[in-house]
Design brief:
single chain; disordered N terminus; 3 strands; globular; 121 residues; 4 helices
Amino acid sequence: MIVAILELTHPCIVTENVDNWILSNVSYADRGTERHRGFVLDTITIMNFVLCVVIVALAIVAYTSKKSRIAMYIGVAFALFGISHLMNLIGPGSSLTDVLLIIRTLAYLIVIFALYKVWKP
């Protein structure tokens, strides 16, 4: 019953429930062994990636029209966030946890720096 409801509301999350195989949005477990599915249709990660692309595009427009370094910093930070979301979408994100941690930390530090520049020019 719950699987049927989830298939109707979130078809990309639950697409298979055969013989105790539980399909998640990252990988599925087959009696203790974990296998990757390749391209993952994770709705939240897709939404985050699309929003990062929009923010980067707006930052490019703002930087070219206003020559705002703050917009450039924000654009670079969200480009890094977008790279980490893309890595999770195409699959190797789970094997690159350390690299993604560094990328995201760098992106957060760039946002902090940009906000500091707005606060203390």
